[in-house]
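Predict the 3D structure for this chain.
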Amino acid sequence: MYSKKDPHSHASTDRRSLRKKRGDVPDRAQSSARGRRGIPGQTRQEREASEKNGLVTRLFLNVPYVDSHEDLILAYLASSVFYSLTPILLTEQPTSLIRLDRLRDLISGCDFSIHDLSYVKLDHAAAWRLPRFNMPLELGMALALKPTDRIWVFEKVPHRLWAAASDLGGIDPKIHGGEAEGIFRGFREIFAPQEVTLEMFRTQMELLRAHCRKLKREGHKIWDGYAFPRLVAGIVANLEGLINAN
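Done. Predicted structure below.
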């Protein structure tokens, strides 16, 4: 079951911190990353320091915020948490800063970033009928701010990325084929395989889809500042149960 606690509740956070100090609650980095051999670009010393100090590894997700990609976004969230990564979206952040400034700060503040460039189409709803360039722009910002071994690109169709942007010829995108399981397989290629199985991922996705339908009935988009943290909290709450059941 998904936890009904408000993920932003300070009281809930304080209680969980206290229980962790007493040893009642396993640290998320230990429970959900069992068997993980490390994260590309992260040294052994960095990994050991992060685990010792309970630091959260942040993953910036550059994904298309369109209804047709909802299932893919859910797959990114589930896969991120399965690998002890905290997913970060632009839309959940405060809006007081200029968008480009927020993007720069978010990308710089995250350890890694994933960029889904599979939404390639003209925007027929807009007057100019142009493709959306936000996602390639955010990829360019990440390449300027971070080493390439901390950046990954996902695509739907093989070879299309290089045809659209030949300067990215040195980047080998993960091809998900427009399927949630393709995203999970991409994460397994990037990060060392661990005990979370494809069957566990499928179970998590069914739970997520049900939660997503409930949030949509309440008038939310899954990437908004209300729904997104609740979906992530639900994945975390279910992960230990899935591991124990298997």
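Residues 55-196 form a domain with the Rossmann fold fold (CATH 3.40.50.450).
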